[in-house]
Known about the structure:
This protein is α+β, with helices and mostly antiparallel strands. It is built from eight helices and nine strands. A hairpin with a 5-residue loop joins strand 4 and strand 5 (about 135). Helix 3 packs across helix 7. The model is unreliable at about 1-40 (pLDDT under 50).
Amino acid sequence: MSDDTSLNLTRRQFLGTSSALAGLAIAPGVFLTKVAHAGDTEAATDKNRWGMLIDTSKCATGCNECVTACNKENGISGTHGPATDAQWIRKVTLTDKQTGYVQSLPLMCQHCANPPCVDVCPTGASMKRADGIVLVDKHICIGCRYCMMACPYKARSFIHEVLEEQKAVAPRGKGTVESCTMCVQRVDANRGEADKSKHVDPACVEACNASGHKAMWFGDLKDPDSEIATELKKHGGQQLRADLQLNTGVRYQGIT
């Protein structure tokens, strides 16, 4: 057997063993791909590109409704300490040092069209669906954390703890990386509907609207008649670190 063949075989054995261990860290009989697409009648396609728009002028400083809703929807404890639980969405404060102007905005995975996390993942666990949603397959994530280092938005978390009482729609596992999924379980619940414009908002958007701030929109960026596309056409939207040319699915208004 040649040296190259031996190396390739060893790598496949390593990845196969690591994938099995990652799968066991979630829960016996729980499979991410099956749960994430429960109720589907058809596969995700590039006919849609799901995205989010956030108006920072309406995002209230001190309001954490979006964070609380995300934690509740996806079974995240929201506690942070030496062994920290994940943060799929977090509130950050931006201060203009020259004027003193302060802005508050939610930050999460930006669901890039050209995601660096996918580029560096050695196992293919970090992936982008045809409809633009970036996910992590926990069964083949080996916890190397290359994606965390590659993400310019610091939007990914590593699970240090053994987790209990997980949500069936959002299986999680110790030793794996995770981030915002745009509440893919909600998106997929309506996939296959006759009216393709129908969708259920992610928990963060739903909570923001319910609180009265109405600072967040979610929808199909490819549908010119969707609310999010109409808002972007009227008032525009900026990418965070547009210079990186990642073509993010999350856009912001009011950033100075």
